């Protein structure tokens, strides 16, 4: 079966649109011995300096990375966990998507949180500043089981982002309703 990898144009849009559209897509991690696949079921959108929760608020490497081309992988640590993000929108415009939770498809692991999913998928700092559209070890692909997805009648829930002291008034966290791998309902 031919893999339909997500391309740069997919990530070249507004962070909120990409965050919604990533739901149901497949995050693929290739290691020496395994091919791990997980359905993306929860995301959060982040914007530039106008977003108090964004990594672009301060100067430094994370802001510079958010200004890179669409599809750039942004990995940073929080509470001894790696978190994975994908840069979106136009190069020079700081927007990114946090992958918050995934549903394992061909393996068993706890993945209902950004630190848990990176541990389960063996995602670390080695992916920082690489591009998910040009990478063979970490990629996002279309869910080829579209008929099955349509039958599921995916209902997307909008919610406030989690764990923030300051946030934008808009709900920028998205998840698939009823999925048991959602990090927090």
Can you describe this structure in just a few lines?
This protein is an alpha+beta fold and 185 residues long. Helices cover 17% and strands 28% of the residues. It is built from five helices and eight strands; from the N terminus they run H-H-E-E-H-E-E-E-H-E-H-E-E.
Plain-language structure description:
This protein is of the alpha+beta class and 185 residues long. It has one domain (8-173): Methylpurine-DNA glycosylase (MPG) (3-methyladenine DNA Glycosylase, Chain A, Roll). The protein has helices at 8-11, 15-21, 61-66, 114-120, 146-152; strands at residues 26-30, 35-46, 73-78, 81-87, 96-104, 138-141, 156-159, 173-176. Strands 1, 2, 3, 4, 5, 6, 7 and 8 form an eight-stranded antiparallel β-sheet that branches. The chain is globular and about 40 Å long.
Helix content: 10-25%
Q: What is the residue-mean pLDDT, rounded to a whole number?
A: 89
Please provide the ordered H/E string of secondary-structure elements. HHEEHEEEHEHEE
Per DSSP, the total helix count is 5
Total domains, how many? 1
Tell me what portion of residues adopts beta-strand conformation.
Answer: 25-35%
Question: In angstroms, what separates the terminal alpha carbons?
Answer: 35 Å
Uncertain runs are none
Look up the CATH topology.
3-methyladenine DNA Glycosylase, Chain A
The CATH architecture designation is: Roll
Number of strands: 8
Multimerization status: single chain
Shape: globular
CATH superfamily: Methylpurine-DNA glycosylase (MPG)
Main beta sheet: 8 strands, antiparallel
Q: Structural class per helix/strand content? A: alpha+beta
């Amino acid at each position: 079966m031919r893999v339909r990898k997500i391309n740069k144009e997919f990530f070249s849009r507004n962070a909120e649109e990409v965050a919604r559209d990533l739901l149901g897509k497949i995050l693929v991690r290739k290691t020496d011995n395994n091919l791990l696949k997980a359905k993306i079921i929860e995301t959060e959108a982040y914007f530039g300096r106008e977003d108090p929760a964004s990594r672009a608020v301060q100067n430094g490497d994370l802001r510079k990375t958010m200004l890179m081309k669409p599809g750039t992988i942004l990995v940073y640590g929080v509470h001894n966990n790696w978190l994975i993000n994908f840069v979106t929108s136009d190069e020079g415009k700081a927007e990114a998507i946090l992958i918050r939770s995934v549903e394992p498809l061909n393996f068993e692991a706890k993945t209902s949180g950004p630190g848990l999913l990176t541990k389960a998928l063996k995602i670390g700092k080695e992916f920082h500043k690489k591009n998910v559209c040009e990478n063979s070890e970490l990629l996002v692909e279309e869910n080829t089981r579209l008929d099955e997805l349509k039958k599921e009648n995916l209902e997307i829930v909008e919610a406030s982002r989690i764990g923030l002291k300051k946030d934008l008034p808009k709900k920028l966290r998205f998840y698939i309703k009823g999925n048991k791998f959602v990090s927090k309902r």
